[in-house]
Amino acid sequence: MKIKGWLIYETEHAKKNQAFIQWFLNEAKELEMELDFILQSRIAFGVQHNELVIVLDGKTIDPPDFVIMRNIDPLFNEQLERMNIPCFNSHHVSVICNDKAKTHQHLAGKGIPMLDTYFTTTDELLTGNLPIPFPFIIKARTGRGGGDVFMVEGVEQLEAVHTQLSARSIILQPLAGSPGKDLRVYVLGRTIAGAVLRSNPKSFKANFTLGGQAEAYTLNEVERTVVNKVIQQFDFGLVGIDFLFDVNGRLLFNEIEDVVGCRTLCLTSDINIVRMYLEFILQKLGYGGDPT
């Protein structure tokens, strides 16, 4: 009997990633895995007759052997794990890595270089309680893809950001040494799969989707050591770990992308990250060698 899994997306993200979804389905077929693409909107979950349950299209169904979660819903991740359904990425990764404040809090004191980072709200900033001087960076704690990230150089900009973000929880950081330049390291389990240098001379944001450029990057041994310190703190499936650079070109931890996009890795290398991910999952489930 084939091992059966679900590949879960929310609707808008699925529309933008049809080729990536098909890539998963094709590779799964090659590996003789039964992988179904399912929109999160088709799923209901909770407690029924005093037992945890997942309902698909209005019907209680037999659970899959595993789930590849390409949507951000930590509660659903936890439901799966409480029902003994392996979820990639895990509930723990989803909870920590989709919150920039929690991520920095979790990694503090682990010997991982990072910018000074303060946890606050936009309302608190208007009281004048600024822990660092202008200019600084404001990021929404749950923002993704470079969204809800602002450079603030004075009070007028601060007020404008407050209007845009309302009373959201944020983090506050000084500028990094090399604005408009960052490094994304793709990690599979405990293995570094590849790295991409992203740069944008026209903005302090280096995101490829915001007009940045991307090129393959080879980590040196010092950089690998820094990346591995992050890896050791989690049980990852597939993630992207993002780093900034200080004035001397050394890595500064920035954030972790749980539902990581792989477009730049595909454009800059011939790495078959989807095949690698599915083989990793098979190994994790006991259908191959030891997972890395």
> What's the helical proportion of residues?
25-40%
Q: Count the helices. How many?
A: 10
Give the spatial strand order of the biggest sheet: 14-13-12-15-16
- DSSP strand count: 16
Outline, from the CA principal axes? globular
Any idea how many domains?
3
CATH names the topology of the largest domain as: D-amino Acid Aminotransferase, Chain A, domain 1
CATH architectural category of the largest domain: 2-Layer Sandwich
Beta-strand content bin: 25-35%
Q: Main β-sheet: number of strands, strand sense, barrel status?
A: 5 strands, antiparallel
CA radius of gyration is 20 Å
Instruction: State the fourth-level CATH superfamily of the largest domain.
Output: ATP-grasp fold, B domain
Name the poorly predicted regions. Answer: none
The secondary-structure class comes to alpha+beta
